[in-house]
Amino acid sequence: MTAWWTALSTDLQIFYAIGIIALAITSIQLVLSLMGVAGDAASFDLDLDLPDADSSSGAGILSSQTLGAFFLGFGWVGAMARSSGLSLLLSVALAIALGVALMFAMFYLIRLLLSLQSKGNLDYATAIGEEATVYVTLPGDDQDGGGQIQLMIQGRTRVASARKASPGVAKPGDRVRITSMLGPTTYNVESISNTQPLQ
């Protein structure tokens, strides 16, 4: 390995070094993202005025992800171009062009993923007033603990935590009506027979 490295010309060593470091950083970012660890502390954003760019999305054109993509393309394309016998000037030009292309590709990919994530968020409050089916027994308000209900939220079947607002147990399969929210994804429910018709 050492012999291979020392046999390289200075420009090839620079290209390879940039490519290897960028590949390592990009791989670490990918692993951290999949683990849910990566956050604001791991990246910085600089939003520029670009078509369809939304500064509130948190996806800047110059972020650690897009810069990583640029240097990844720059390093490896430059190394391949020089290894194939192209001049240094042409190799640098190709490396910059491919690096910029990868940077914009990463930028729009991140924006697409953020857009899909935003559209996928469910608003649990939209189910208030709707009927649901008891999934796990709901103890009455005179007993401790809660259960679960199965309901439709924005066209999707979901199971959510719930508590019954009156005495008496609601067993699996019983129909209940959602009356209010007890938390971000927890409902207050009432047996259908105990609820007043919605106006």
Brief description of this entry?
This is NfeD-like C-terminal domain-containing protein. The chain crosses the membrane at residues 14-38, 59-79, 85-110. 43% of the residues lie in helices and 19% in strands.
Task: Please explain how this structure is put together.
The protein has 199 residues and is an alpha+beta fold. The protein has two domains: 119 residues, no CATH class; 70 residues, OB fold (Dihydrolipoamide Acetyltransferase, E2P). Strands 1-2-3-5-4 form a five-stranded mixed barrel. It is rod-shaped, with a radius of gyration of 28 Å. Helix 2 runs antiparallel to helix 3 and helix 3 packs antiparallel against helix 4. It has four helices and five strands.
The major β-sheet equals: 5 strands, mixed, barrel
Average pLDDT, to the nearest integer?
79
Distance between the termini: 78 Å
Q: How many separate structural domains?
A: 2
Counting helices, strands and paired strands, the structural category is: alpha+beta
Number of strands: 5
In N-to-C order, the SSE pattern is HHHHEEEEE
Helix content: 40-55%
Radius of gyration: 28 Å
Q: What is the overall shape?
A: rod-shaped
Number of helical segments with 4 or more residues: 4
Low-confidence stretches: 37-58, 194-199
Strand order of the largest sheet: 1-2-3-5-4
Strand content: 15-25%
